[in-house]
Amino acid sequence: MRIAFLGHSYHRLTGSSRFMQAILLARLGAVEVFEDESWQGGAAVDVAAVLAGGFDAIHVWQMEQPLEALVAARPGVPIYWYPMQDSARHLGPAFWSRTAPGARIIAFCRAVHEDAVRRGLDSAWFQYFPDPSGVAPVGAADGVFCWPRREAFGWPLLKRLLPLGFSGRLHLHDHPDPGSAPPALPDAVDIAAHGITQSRWFEDRGALDRLLGEFLIYVAPRLHEGIGMAFLEALARGQCVVAADRATMNEYITDGVNGLLFDPDRPRPLDFARAVAMGARARELVALGHVRWQRDAAGRLLDALTAPPGTRLRALAEPFPA
C-alpha cells in the first residue's frame, strides 16, 4: 500500500505527528510525506501532486485547507483526517457539513470526537501516550519552566498562577508559535524581582530536553491543544504539569492528582506543595496509558485504518459510548 501523509512542516520540528507516520509505515505500507511550508514563506502542499500520485490512501494531519480540496476532488481512495482541537474549534458549520463527511475522522482529542459525533459524523477516538521509558525522569529537580507560545497565554497570566510569595526558580523559553501574535513577556522589573532566566530556540533538541529536566513544574503553554505532545512528554518525564482546564489537557490531567488545572477566565494562585507527588503519579499514569495505546495501535486503530468502504468507524473503534 502507498500512503500520502499531508502535514504542517512545523510538526516535523515538534514531532507531534511522528508517531502516527511510524505506525502507518510499520503496519500499512510505504509513506510519502507532503509538508506545508507556507508558514515560513515556502510552498503550500501541492494537492494536485497528491491526487496524481496514485496513492491507495491519503492521511491529512490537521491541515483543513488541503483536506477541503481533496474531498472536493473525490479521489476514489479513502481520506483520513486527524483534526486538532486548537484549530478545529474555529471551523464553521459549512466546513463540518460540506468537507468533514468526505473523510474518515481519527480524533486524538475526545472533545473533537464528541463534537463530530454530535454532528452525525463518523469518528474514532484514541488517546496517545508516549513511552516514559524513553524519557529521562526529572529526579530531584525544582522550579518552574514555561514556554509562552501564543498571545493568549503570556507572562501576565502566568504571574497570576504563581503561588503567593513564590521565590523558586522561574525560566521562560522565548520562541512563539509561527504565525501567532507573540505573548507578553516580563519587563526588566519583573525579571529582576522573580529572578527569571530565559532561553530561545535550540537547534539541538537534546539541549532543550536537558534544560527541561532541570525543572519540577512544567507550564503547558497553550490554552487549547491538538494532542499536546510537549505536555505529554512533561507528564512522562514526571513533571507536575500546570495546564488550562480545557481540551486536550483536561483529558489527561486530573487536578490535584497528576497535575494542576486552572480556569483561564478566573486565574488564581496555585499550590505547588504536592508537585513532587503529582509528577510521580503523572509518570505512573503515562506508563499505564502507553500500554493501552500500544494495544489500541495494534487493534482498534489498525481496524479503523483498514476498514472497508462503508464501515462505521465507531462500530470498530469506540472504546465506550460517546
TrEMBL record:
InterPro entries: Glyco_trans_1 (IPR001296)
Superkingdom of source: Bacteria
GO molecular function, one term: glycosyltransferase activity
Record domain Glycosyl transferase family: where: 202-271
Alphabetical list of SUPFAM superfamilies matching this protein: UDP-Glycosyltransferase/glycogen phosphorylase (SSF53756)
Name the UniProt record assigns to this protein: Glycosyltransferase family 4 protein
Organism, scientific name: Plastoroseomonas arctica
